[in-house]
Amino acid sequence: MRSKKRKKNLNFTVALVFVIIAIIVFAVKLYQSSMSDIKKDNSDKNSLAETDGSITGNNIAVSVDDPMPDTSSISGSAAENGDEDKDNKKEDRKNITSLFFVNSPDNISGFFSGKETAQNGFVEIDYKDRTILLDEDVTLPISNVKILPVGVISQQEQSACGAACLFMLANSISKNSAFENYTDLLEFAENNGYNNQGSLYSSTGGMDCEMLCRLASDAFSIKLVNKFDRHIPPSQTIKEVIDNNKQAIVLVRSRNRTIVESGGFSHFILINGYEETTNGLVFFYADSNYYEDNCVSGSLKYISSSVLDISAASSFDEPNAILCIE
Description:
Elements: H1 2-51, E1 55-56, E2 59-60, H2 86-92, E3 98-101, E4 110-116, E5 122-127, E6 130-135, E7 139-142, E8 146-147, H3 161-173, H4 182-191, H5 209-220, E9 224-226, H6 234-243, E10 248-255, E11 258-260, E12 265-277, E13 280-286, E14 301-304, H7 305-312, E15 322-325
């Protein structure tokens, strides 16, 4: 009787060991499966990160549902279409002056205007009030987009958006402008009465478009004209300006670094390009309203024509403005 009991206990022990082994094997397989899914998910995320903004081929199709995404949401990669032949890349870059790039050695990422350079393997981008060379392998050329060169700067002071836009415009057409340093222009405007709305260094100051035109003439010998017409959609006027290879300083409503249709505060931006998408026109612009690091250039942003039309045609306590070089 005792022998049978020992045998029964032994059988139970063996069965229990097999069950434990089976559970361990199952757990290992489940863990391996989970890790595989995580790796796949990360791979998918990396793929999405490279094509965020709905880049298709060499064309960027932006979403007009999001009126102004943050810079970090705009990214691209030269490897987006896989391992392309180098000759094809060179061919794609011909006559293209707009560049998407990300993860450069200089920690530059975002959307900037740029062009090819004679230095093999590098492209030249417009960065702040100068240019910089980047390895072409971290860039993605974009076609079907009209973009004029501009280096984005920080306005540094809360009410200095007009002066910042003028500086960006002037330095985009001439590298030998009278004011090669933005702070010098800021001081000149502040100390010589161009701040007809109050100090450029305060949150309630600034200058209107008429004073901005005067500053352009006195500081850079540039004649600006106001193309705003209440009977014509602003987007139509701005497109015509860009088609004539000119940029437009536009007065809009802004809140939290976003162009809005109503409310917010008056803010000058520099519009330097557009794309005709299936959802209508999308405009690219330089926004000087950032203060994180005055030494680092901001990237271009974009806005739908529908939001821009309402914002730029708003009733301000100053004249509406679409300023361009005559």
